[in-house]
Specification:
There is one protein chain. By secondary structure, the chain is mostly helical. The chain has five helices and no strands. About 80% of the residues lie in helices and about 0% in strands. The chain starts with 8 loop residues before the first helix and ends with a helix.
Length: about 120
């Protein structure tokens, strides 16, 4: 993580979420690993890409990129909640990842309000 000292905090948080989810993905049943698990993984990567792009974008483009990231983030939260409801993720794992997602949600919301 020392290489990320100069990164914006939200990118660092998403980096951590991906590492956590990657470990959880191994525990998904085979039938769910490539469907719901793959969707979650793809969403995390896409949101991370959008956040990174927004951090480097000119101010007038940031709002549009952050809005897209926010919509994808809401979809990710839905998929993670579904994994919990289907008992693919146990309660403890769900609460761990959910705490990160809540913090990231506040960061995205704050970023949107600042624009």
């Amino acid at each position: 993580m020392n290489n990320f000292k100069n990164e914006i905090p939200i990118i660092t948080k998403f980096y951590e979420v991906y590492k956590i989810f990657y470990g959880y993905l191994e525990l998904f049943p085979k039938k769910d690993k490539y469907a719901l698990g793959g969707k979650c993984e793809t969403q995390i990567i896409q949101i991370m890409e959008l956040i990174f792009l927004a951090s480097a974008a000119p101010r007038e483009k940031k709002k549009e990129i952050i809005s897209e990231a926010s919509a994808k983030f809401d979809l990710l939260k839905l998929f993670i909640r579904l994994a919990n409801d289907l008992k693919i993720l146990d309660r403890k794992k769900y609460l761990i990842i959910q705490s990160y997602l809540q913090e990231i949600g506040r960061m995205i919301g704050g970023w949107q309000k600042s624009l």
